[in-house]
Amino acid sequence: MIGGFGGSGGQPTRLMLALSKKKLKGLTIIGNVAGISETTGYGWPKNIKPVDQGIFFRTGIADKIICSFPVPASQNPKSPIENFWHNNKNSVEIIPQGTLIEKIRCAGAGIPAFYTSTGVGTIIENNKETKFINNKKYILEYALSADYALIRASVADENGNLQFRGTSRAFNPAMATAAKITIVEVDEIVKAGSLDPNNIHTLGIHVNRIIKRRKNDIYP
Predict the structure, then answer these.
(1) Which DSSP letter does residue 96 get?
(2) What global pTM score does this model have?
(3) Whole-number pLDDT of residue 220
(4) Confidence of residue 7 (pLDDT cuts 50, 70, 90)
(5) What is the mean pLDDT of residues 103-114?
(6) Whose CA, among 22, 27, 150, 220, lies 20 to 30 Å from 57?
(7) Is 128 left (phi over 0), alpha (psi -120 to 50) or beta?
(8) CA 168, CA 150: separation in Å to the nearest integer?
């Protein structure tokens, strides 16, 4: 799982760059968006080369992505993910955004499946179990977990308790709970007990490793 909402919005850029350099194969990437930054520059300063999930396909370590928003409409040039998709070199599974985050949230909460009306009567319903509840049709969706979650937070204490800022609160907190190993990239690490308990967004029990970004890092 790769946290972040879209563009440079709260994604663990340094962890993504580090992962892209590993000698791995066959990874499945789970994230909200894919391939919208490298070719559009969406959300990035003009003097920095954008980084997005396309880097894992360009370097050849991933061959599948599960997301809600794979590419912008009429994008030219096409992103690495879209090019590989058209050439049948990778697999793209598209899930409605609300359903995607609920699948992740359920995995973290120990809920194996849930019913939703989102996608009823569309291709989303194909080959899925359905049920009528109070005369309304619903689709059965299963929880979605991962081996690793790479997430981005603003502040962590020494016990892994996290605070998020802005759009980083959209996917990162849920992903932190839904993986076997959660690695968090943070701007600042403070002493245990120094964070206000009322302002802790993710508990340290969900965090396995903390990586502090360099001061004044060029990446958002």
Answers:
(1) -
(2) 0.91
(3) 77
(4) low
(5) 98
(6) 220
(7) beta
(8) 12
